[in-house]
């Protein structure tokens, strides 16, 4: 059976601005039913790496906080620490970054709790009995929350094509150890002819796996497969290779997404913001120009249908000139054109294991 996906475009007028539209989506989707009075409600969000500018605008988070409070839930904003070295790899830096990016209590009206604690060690092992993992590592504050509202910025992703609700549930809800479990099949490779020995990749490597002499060199024994060097290199001299098929990473992510939702049946709600669709993840300390015009905001109870609808609407947009889509104007999958990866295996596997359905009814409000 098709899942309902509610969509509002970017058009606004007096009395119906984009923040008001978030509340309309909430009401239309009947999200209030997911929250029992007194629930601790995790609002799962990505606060953006320091220097990134494409992450979700905090005013939307504030509106969702108000809606949760109106449903008599107790909201908190949350994300888990990163695997790579950056501005969000421990709770102190992560909180500081979140506040600098605009997620202060005075703005959003709710506290921030870093879901996996001070240094990423607070997690639960959740049995998923998947084909890749028996158990996955889910950050404690997400596991222990009674209900969850997942706010995702839909954009490109350098290793899996695109990132939306399922990416936010999987990579976003796992502690660094869980992220490493998903990334373990990635093996980066230096293209020496492009390397200028600047050393930026070495500074961002969490494993000390990179040495730079005349050219960069990666110790495959030490590499965690986080992929950070592939996007950090200003010369695009490091290619991500996979020890197995690229779909394995996507399937592993789906099994983590299932773990994040466990125990919260009919208690998880999803918004995708298909705006400022950057070619790469908000984990980067920059955001390149959006590759398509803004599509709007989508909401659903089903993360698979939501990501499928977001993907389809994004691909129906014309490419924006002067962006990473230059030279790929006729690409059917704009995200694959930019990243080199077909991300639809994630949707396929998510549907196969019952996380949701790829069939959707798009309801425009
Ligand atoms: S060498 Fe491996 S661990 Fe280091 S940044 Fe690259 S992918 Fe990550
Ligand atoms: S960031 Fe790129 S160019 Fe700089 S040392 Fe690493 S591989 Fe070479």
Summarize the structure.
This protein is α/β, with parallel strands linked by helices. The protein is 31% helix and 21% strand.
Features:
365 residues; alpha/beta; Rossmann fold; Alpha-Beta Plaits; 2 domains; two-stranded antiparallel sheet; 13 helices
Question: How would you portray this structure in words?
Answer:
The protein is an alpha/beta fold and 365 residues long. It has 2 domains: 3-182 and 246-364, 3-Layer(aba) Sandwich (Rossmann fold); 186-242, Alpha-Beta Plaits, CATH 3.30.70. The chain is 31% helix and 21% strand. The radius of gyration is 19 Å and the shape is globular. The mean pLDDT is 94. It binds iron/sulfur cluster (2 copies).
CATH top level of the largest domain? Alpha Beta
Specify the helix fraction band: 25-40%
Share of β-strand residues: 15-25%
Order of helices and strands: EHEHEHHEEEHEEEHHEHEEHEHEEHHHE
Straight-line N-to-C gap: 21 Å
The kinds of small molecule bound in this structure are: iron/sulfur cluster
Biggest sheet, open or closed, and with what strands and sense? 8 strands, mixed
Counted by DSSP, the helix tally is 13
Which overall shape is indicated by the principal axes computed on the Cα atoms? globular
Give the strand tally: 16
List the helices and strands and how they pair.
Blueprint: E1 3-8, H1 18-29, E2 40-44, H2 58-70, E3 74-79, H3 91-100, H4 105-108, E4 112-114, E5 123-127, E6 135-139, H5 140-144, E7 147-153, E8 155-157, E9 161-163, H6 165-170, H7 176-183, E10 186-190, H8 200-204, E11 210-212, E12 216-218, H9 228-232, E13 238-242, H10 246-261, E14 268-274, E15 296-300, H11 303-315, H12 334-339, H13 344-352, E16 360-364
Parallel strand pairs: 1-16, 2-3, 2-7, 3-4, 7-14
Antiparallel strand pairs: 1-15, 5-6, 8-9, 10-13, 11-12, 14-15
Helix pairs in contact: 1-2, 7-10, 10-13
The structure holds iron/sulfur cluster (SF4) (2 copies).
């Amino acid at each position: 059976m098709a899942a309902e996906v509610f969509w509002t475009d970017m058009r606004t007028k007096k009395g119906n601005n984009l923040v008001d539209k978030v509340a309309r989506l909430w009401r239309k989707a009947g999200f209030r039913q997911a929250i029992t009075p007194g629930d601790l409600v995790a609002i799962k969000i990505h606060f953006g790496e320091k220097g990134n500018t494409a992450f979700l605008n905090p005013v939307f988070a504030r509106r969702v906080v108000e809606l949760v409070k109106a449903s008599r839930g107790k909201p908190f904003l949350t994300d888990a620490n990163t695997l790579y070295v950056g501005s969000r790899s421990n709770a102190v830096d992560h909180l500081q970054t979140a506040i600098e990016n605009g997620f202060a209590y005075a703005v959003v009206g709710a506290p921030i709790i870093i879901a996996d604690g001070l240094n990423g060690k607070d997690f639960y092992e959740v049995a998923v009995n998947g084909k890749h993992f028996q158990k996955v590592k889910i950050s404690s504050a997400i596991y222990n929350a009674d209900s969850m509202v997942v706010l995702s910025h839909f954009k490109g992703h350098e290793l899996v094509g695109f990132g939306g609700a399922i990416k936010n549930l999987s990579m976003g809800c796992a502690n660094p150890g869980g992220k490493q479990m998903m990334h373990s099949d990635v093996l980066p490779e230096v293209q020496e002819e492009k390397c200028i020995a600047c050393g930026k990749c070495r500074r961002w490597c969490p494993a000390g796996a990179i040495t730079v002499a005349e050219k960069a060199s990666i110790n495959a024994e030490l590499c965690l497969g986080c992929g950070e060097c592939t996007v950090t290199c200003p010369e695009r001299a490091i290619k991500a290779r996979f020890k197995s098929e690229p779909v394995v990473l996507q399937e592993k992510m789906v099994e983590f997404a299932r773990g994040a939702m466990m125990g919260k049946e009919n208690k998880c709600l999803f918004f995708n913001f298909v705006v400022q669709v950057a070619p790469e993840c908000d984990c980067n300390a920059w955001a390149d120009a959006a590759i398509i015009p803004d599509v709007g905001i989508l909401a659903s109870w089903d993360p698979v249908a939501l990501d499928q609808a977001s993907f389809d609407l994004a691909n129906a947009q014309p490419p924006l000139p002067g962006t990473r889509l230059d030279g790929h104007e006729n690409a059917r999958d704009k995200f694959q054109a930019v990243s080199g990866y077909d991300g639809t295996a994630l949707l396929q596997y998510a549907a196969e294991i019952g996380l949701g359905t790829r069939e959707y009814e798009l309801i425009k409000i």
